Amino acid sequence: xxxxxxxxxxxxxxxLWLHSLLKSRGYQSLVFERYKLGxxxxxxxxxxxxxxxxxxxxxxxxxASKTIxxxxxxxxxxxxxxxxxxxxxxxxxAWQYHLFSDGRLGNRLSAFLGSHALSAGTRALSPxxxxxxxxxxxxxxVVYEIPDLILDTQSLVKTLADKDPGNLLEAxxxxxxxxxxxxxxxxxxxxxxxxxxxxxxxxxxxNEELITKSNLKMAxxxxxxxxVLIKGDLPVLNGHAVSLRSKDxxxxxxxxxxxxxxxxxxxxxxxxxxxxEREPTAQIAFAKHELKQFLPSxxxxxxxxxxxxxxxxxxxxxxxxxxxxxxxxxxxxxIACWPIKLTLVPLLIDEVFxxxxxxxxxxxxxxxTGLKKVQVGxxxxxxxx
Length: 385
Known about the structure:
Layout: E1 2-9, H1 13-24, E2 29-33, H2 41-44, E3 48-49, H3 63-68, H4 71-79, E4 92-94, E5 97-101, H5 107-120, E6 123-124, E7 143-146, E8 149-151, H6 153-161, E9 168-170, E10 173-177, E11 183-188, E12 193-201, H7 206-213, E13 220-232, E14 239-242, E15 252-259, E16 262-268, H8 270-274, H9 280-294, E17 304-315, E18 327-331, E19 334-338, H10 345-355
Parallel strand pairs: 1-2, 1-12, 2-9, 5-14, 12-19
Antiparallel strand pairs: 3-8, 4-8, 5-7, 6-7, 10-11, 11-12, 13-16, 13-17, 14-15, 15-16, 18-19
Helix pairs in contact: 1-6, 1-10
């Protein structure tokens, strides 16, 4: 039998961040991950830590943008080592990125971006300042520099894992329900029982199975993404492509990963959300159309294309809409978590701690030397397409 204060199921960014804070606050904590650390939504994320500008491109400030607006400052404090969660060893792909248009930016959107520039450090670039992807007469749009971050999510996972690798365990767990709210305990595949004051479900789409086996009343949903990856002799480009049709999200988002002489572009945004209805061949064709419209001077014809389908796990919303806030739901001794976005993980963890009403028990750490330690995952494309 294993006894601990908090048992966390799921080794993505939510589980690892929570585990780090629990340990620093005196709790005994264990993380159980079935596959590899970060292998679900965390490493499939584009790593953008933003303040919500892309959610109100129509000039209307919504709930989502208000919720997220303070998050870049929280992450910067962690990255500088000036926070309880020290992420000073995490690599950043970019310390700022760009918002760019296709040349048909409406007056309303231009006015909104101009006003945002005054209040949030967003800066309009002159043609002389344009980064290489926007150089040349073919590009007719505008470019803004946004003071937000793009994290190397693999580095983020490794940094958190290195804080306490001995208590990150590779294991499939099954909850054992009882008649009241919550569960009795977890059972590992070898029959080992795990008892805890609280059980945290932070397993992404794996939460569905855990909730069902626990006989809990929580309702979940999945929303798909169909990302596109492009590899070739490409310039580094990070940012949001916007137009009159952008409404509350960019036409596409792009992050870049260098490997030798090649660059991989990872495309998300509205392209990925609507792309869930397209087959891979059609999705690649659509991505090529979007890129040629926004970046006509970039030669993509010789590049290698592939797609990646992702399922986002969320609490159930009316009409399957995107939730505006990170969510944690408590039933008895079980707390299920959905961060919604990487950016919002610190806010989610604050909500989890509000629901943990017990104090550290002072029990000795259980001996886990006989259990397999889980490894850090890699990007879904594995460095090559």
